[in-house]
Amino acid sequence: MKTAASGACAAIVLATLIDPPSANAADAASPLEIAQQLNEAFVQVAETVSPAVVVIEIAQRPNTARFHRDHPLWELLPPESRRQLEEDLEKEPKEPPPRRDPRFDGSGSGLVIREDGYILTNTHVVEEAEKIKVRFKDGRDFETTKVWTDPQSDIAVVKIDAKGLATAKLGDSARTRVGEFAIAIGAPFVLDYSVTFGHVSAKGRQQIIPSFGRDSLGAKMDQDFIQTDASINPGNSGGPLVNIRGEVIGINTLVRGLGTGIGFAVPINRAKDVAEQLIAHGKVARAWLGIATGPLRESRLRTQVEDLKNGLVVDVIQTNGPAFKSDLKRFDIIQAVEGQPVANVQELRDAIRAKKIGSTIVLDVVRLDDHGGRKDLQIQVKTEAWPDEEISQLADSRRSPPDSPAALGLTVQTVTEELAKEFEVKKAEGVMVTAVRPNSPAALVGFKPGDIITKVGEKSVKTRQQFREAVAAAGSKEVTIHFLSEGTEESRTIKGKSE
Fold first, then answer.
1. 485 classed as catalytic
2. CATH code for the domain in which residue 376 is found
3. 262 shares its domain with 379
């Protein structure tokens, strides 16, 4: 690939637009020659990168639905795609089908990052795979079951038994600029090795995957996306987003509506870091505080601290988290981590993940009292690793069946003294509603955080596991839930749990 010519062609176009050469300049390139140079640059990128791009075909586990109504990306699908999936879901048998040989009926894309067979892709491409087939542009294919996933970043690594593979050159997404050319390579709609181009539309996009409540998928995901108007469609997931120099700057992950020109890619710096940890350790270790926060500008506290422009209000301090062991309190307003200001959840998460697990970090917080007083404090918290239970719940939330608490729109925890105190309710046996997804079946009948569920149907529930089992046993058409709301016994019947 002629890197110098390729990298210079965009600059030539820009220089021509800003300062057109005079008609008397004998050595000036003609508009056609400039266009031909740009055209050649795109061709060279496609020819150079495509040998490192693979088509990933998925054989699903029997009786699993890889994409369903409660999937966090469901609402991001265009209406026509949702209607088709709805029809497919209705046709699925109610009883588990007999065991069959794996059938490759799902697909995505991937990128070879090591010559000895390590391939980068998305978690949502391979998470339900019983067997994976990797196909190269030259026709070679390999089957494998070796895969490591990281639900928080939606990055996964697939390993095939091969040597001497062509690899892609990874760029530096931190140096990527808005407005640069962006080229997507993948297999949209099973159209292998399709190449589309556009620009980097934005960087640092957050909260793209919906966040409904404290324990929801969107709230836990590691979201920091590159936005692009290069055409990305189903099947592009896991494939590379490349700059004009043929360097990979992102891993294409999702699109907001077909034909909208709004697609998103995980920055390659983050994807590379995740992949290296998956390859070395089989999982990703992240520092964790065990808190949930919300922007100050969206909090009722904002009127009491009008001089503060940004900050994060502590909504929840989990009793099993490291922050619970510190002096941090609910409704504290976090202003900075180690002196670095934080204005949103992703900035807080990035500041924490930059620290080693077990290190002590200093939070600059503002604390208000009941009398309008205010204190500026520095609070130390010793970080811990994300617990396996939290990560497992995150992975499970991607594929909640229609007869699950997630499909109801409820997040619950077993009632404890600490939890009752946090929600300012009297402790009772049951499970506490800690979050209700907006517009969910549970929200429509009036459930709210702080309610204590005591029975599902006629079955008493005292733990989260008992609640989950009772909801599943009730079936998928309707379920009656008995609960305490502000000390009053009530019951609600929820119909049509699937949204």
1. no
2. 2.30.42.10
3. no
Q: pLDDT tens digits, residue range 359-372?
A: 999 999 999 887 77
* Nearest residue to 409 (alpha-carbon basis) of 153, 151, 215, 206: 215
Catalytic residue among 6, 237, 299, 440: 237
- Specify whether 91 is located in the same domain as 224: yes
**Considering the entire predicted model, what is its pTM?**
0.64
Q: How confident is the model at residue 496 (pLDDT cuts 50, 70, 90)?
A: very low
* Token pair in block for residue 292: 């949930």
DSSP 8-class letter at 216 = S
* Residue 288 amino acid letter: W
Among residues 70, 150, 154, 222, the one annotated as catalytic is 154
The yes-or-no answer on residue 154 being catalytic is yes
Residue 301 lies in a domain: yes
Which residue in this structure is represented by tokens 């934005």?
202
Coil vs helix vs strand at 73: coil
Q: Which segment of 115-129, 281-295, 391-405 scores lowest on mean pLDDT?
A: 391-405
3 state SS of 480: strand
Measured CA distances, 496 to 68, 153, 409, 442 (Å): 15, 31, 12, 10
Q: Which of 71, 124, 222, 364 is catalytic?
A: 124
**Number of folded domains in the chain?**
4
Q: Which is more confident, 258 or 235?
A: 235
Span 361-387, mean pLDDT? 88
Which stretch of 169-178, 204-213, 221-230 has the lowest confidence by average pLDDT?
204-213
Q: Identify whether the C-beta of residue 217 lies closer than 8 Å to the C-beta of residue 394.
A: yes
